[in-house]
Amino acid sequence: MNKPGVYIHIPFCKKKCSYCDFYSMPEPDTDIIRDYCNSVVGEIDYEGKKHDGKIIYDTLYIGGGDPASIGNRLVRIIEAASIKFNLGKNAEITVESNPESMTFELSRELKKAGVNRISFGAQSADDNELAALGRTHSARDVQEAVYTAKSAGIRNISIDLILGIPYQTTKSLDCTLNFAKKLNIPHISAYILKLEKETALYANGIAKHCPDENAVSDIYLYTVNKLEEFGYAQYEISNFSKCSNTGQNFRSLHNLKYWRLSPYTGIGSAAHSFDGKARYSHSRNIKSYIKDPVKDKKCYDKNAGGLDEYILLSLRLADGLDCAKVQKIYGTDKRQLLSNAEDIIKSDHNGLLRINGDKIQLTPRGFLLSNMIINKMLECVKV
Amino acid sequence: MPVDKTKIRNFSIIAHIDHGKSTLADRILEKTSTVELRDMEEQLLDNMDLERERGITIKARAVRMCYPAKDGQEYILNLIDTPGHVDFNYEVSRSLAACEGAVLVVDASQGIEAQTLANAYLAADAGLEIVPVLNKIDLPSADPARICAEIEDVIGIPAMDAPQISAKAGQNIESVLERIVKEIPPPDGKDDAALQALIFDSFYDSYKGVIIYVRVKSGKVEFGDEILMMATGAKFNITEIGYLGATGFYPTNGLSAGEVGYIAASIKSVGNTQVGDTVTLAKNPALEPLPGYRDVNPMVFSGIYPVDGAKYGDLRDSLEKLRLNDASLSYEAETSIALGFGFRCGFLGLLHMEIVQERIEREYNLGIITTAPSVVYKLTLKNGKDIYIDNPTNYPKSDEIELAQEPIVKATVLAPSEYVGNIMDLCQERRGTFKDMKYIDETRAELHYDLPLNEIIYDFFDALKSRTKGYASFDYDFIGFAPSSLIKLDIMLNGEIVDALSFIVHRDKAYTRGRRIAEKLKEQIPRQMFEVPVQAVIGGKVIARETVRAMRKDVLAKCYGGDITRKKKLLEKQKEGKKRMRQLGSVSVPQEAFMAVLKLD
Fold this sequence. Notes:
The structure holds 2 protein chains of 2 kinds.
Chain A: E1 5-10, E2 12-13, E3 25-26, H1 30-50, E4 59-64, H2 72-84, E5 92-97, H3 104-113, E6 117-123, H4 127-132, H5 139-151, E7 156-163, H6 170-183, E8 187-192, H7 200-203, H8 213-229, E9 233-236, E10 239-241, H9 253-259, E11 264-267, E12 272-274, E13 279-282, H10 286-291, E14 297-301, H11 307-314, E15 321-322, H12 323-330, H13 334-347, E16 353-356, E17 359-362, H14 364-368, H15 370-378
Parallel strand pairs in A: 1-4, 1-11, 2-3, 4-5, 5-6, 6-7, 7-8
Antiparallel strand pairs in A: 8-10, 9-10, 12-13, 13-14, 15-17, 16-17
Helix pairs in contact in A: 1-2, 2-3, 6-8, 12-13
Chain B: E1 8-15, H1 21-31, H2 49-54, E2 61-68, E3 74-81, H3 89-97, E4 101-107, H4 114-125, E5 129-135, H5 144-155, H6 173-183, E6 196-205, E7 209-218, E8 220-222, E9 226-229, E10 235-237, E11 240-244, E12 249-251, E13 254-256, E14 260-264, E15 278-281, E16 300-306, H7 312-325, E17 330-336, E18 340-347, H8 350-363, E19 368-370, E20 377-381, E21 386-389, E22 401-416, H9 420-429, E23 433-439, E24 444-452, H10 453-456, H11 460-467, E25 473-483, E26 486-493, E27 496-497, E28 503-506, H12 507-524, E29 532-538, E30 541-548, H13 564-579, E31 581-584, E32 587-590, H14 591-596
Parallel strand pairs in B: 1-3, 1-4, 4-5
Antiparallel strand pairs in B: 2-3, 6-7, 6-15, 7-14, 8-13, 9-10, 9-15, 11-12, 11-14, 16-18, 16-19, 17-18, 20-21, 20-22, 22-24, 22-25, 23-24, 26-27, 26-28, 26-29, 29-30, 31-32
């Protein structure tokens, strides 16, 4: 089996972004942060002891919220996790950060603690768009944050961009993409904005100014093209990476675990875990977590990791769904899957997918319709 | 003790829909204490859920009551309830044939409507004494004097002293009962003649087999007798015989001339006990059956398919069971390229069709797809053969047809005179031939048109209602076939003909109809992964085209560890939605699309 990864959720940020429906807690008081971090360290200890240090984890990902906003406490957590989860020297250790939260001191500390990858929530280089998203930083902050991380010796840097922001046009997007290019970083994530009903963006009416379905689709395809042109290869619906001269690929190893059904342990409020068979989650209730992080984690799917998940996750990747592998692992006739894909190809004039040997691979246009395509492919699976 | 025939009154209540027939029946049951108040529920005789909800009577019922009249005598009243709708005209006529009189209920504010007339004529044809009653007299808009005059003018029976009642409020019910006793004659018929008993209804009971409702016209029939159905030739031994209570059966030794009751004889199928048939004794049969029996032929046909193809067997079972109770429903297996295995079903009319569909969905909990209803076309082929086609799929190529004929009905429409223009326009649009028109009074007119049945099976009644603000009433009767210029119109989705959407249409209507259907389908078909052309085609020539644009974006951009549940939920939701869809080649079509194309106005 693939080596497992660890995810740690830090649900704190200075201000909640208007589009965000992740579990996060803006402007927390220091007591809560302290108690929460103690519980996280407690859970790290508990989970680490389960395997008696015999299992080597090779990725650690700290997400949020804005993990960098809790400063040195973050460093303590990473140190604890590195030990308890037996993270090797070559492990990928990622920290998410808002651009304005990354100070030079913190990046030095993080580097010392083993962090070798930082993912900045840049979102856009257009300050109007940033304002529409309720972001407090500017494009200039992003530039500085990236520079700070680099000078602390962290070179594997990623930024998140958002597509379909209110007021966004191909022209404003072009500026953002050129801005990203100039940062000279090896990884970019570009997410199509999903309007969630419970968010401020929805409530405050600014959502009305989002580009429509057609415009967003064009924006997405334009982004994919442009990033390819800049040397970033698309490896997942929303993820793009460069290769170094020495052949190192800067894809996110941790995130790949999710899409490849590798196991991972989730720590912290709202974090999910998968042990290869079952899926677990923590509640979205910080108090319940602080009170007892172990009890807070519950199994919600005893029979996970089945063919349906394999299909729906594999098709997110540019590498696609390997039907020969499916036949080997799940015993499902590969011809069944391939003929479903052929059905789609027959009536489709837009090139949504291609068959490459035994692999079914979605094109960027296909990624845009991936829910529909996945559903069609899932017809092969008996539930 | 033999029953005193002079004290029996057999009667029906007839009325236009919503004029208060079932409510009056309820009050009469209460008044005669046939039903204890605590057992009373509304529309007691209509015991199907569907009947109560729609406020209609689908099946005939009968009930025996005792009434101590003001003359000091006790009378036996047999109330035979009738279905009110034109689809069930034949059943109505048989129920009436079982009576000597009919109570004609007329809404005191609305007056005579199309079904009032149709039913009154049926009752008069059957030689019944008609007792008019004005109902809803408590409504502010009631105008009894005007309505009485209307009844006298239009139907031609005296109505000036008609009881003025409110069935809802229970007002003046006794005057109706007194009128029944006084005006409706007692039955005649001799006990010592050969048995002739008219079947006016039958239904299937899972313990006793088919139970038939009869009116004995002459002779006697007793427990243990071997009976013979004169039209079907089937013979049975009576296992139970008796009277009909409001809430149950009362077994007795036998029934004699003039009486109404039920017979059970371990009969397996209602097919052997056709409504209108005559029951006689096998050992001493009557020389002739009672007059008026005929086979009931379905007029409207449509394909019924299970939404889930695997439920084909369940659909067959449910149709079998429905047919046990409904001999006028016919079905045979058919296959559609688009919809798979299903049944071609024949119905008496549109309401009958809707009722059967609804009962399958409700009582058997089956999702079904129904194809556009079709009528029967009579075709004379070039080779001299005559054929009848009730399924557009089987319609021959135009160059094989010498003469095409379609069924024509005689339609009667009653409406306030201000809508006459609208009604004429509608009938004109529907290829009607004007016959005549007369004014019932200064404000209301009665129009007669000959209309192709094909033009009224889709949405005629809806269109009529909307163009007359709901004031028009409508009735029709099949009169025969007439030559017509017919063609088959096909619908193509993504370049493939969907056989379940084909239909026969008059040449002059083909273009408009084809275009409207294409537009309607465009609205109904959700966007898919690719563009879907919707085309209406006649003999390979495209006459209309619409396009369902392709979906461009349906993606969950963020999918990390925690999000996989969200993703799965999304997919499950989509899958649920797909269950209501039918896969036609590469295109998903919702069930509703098959019915929506019928309502084009």
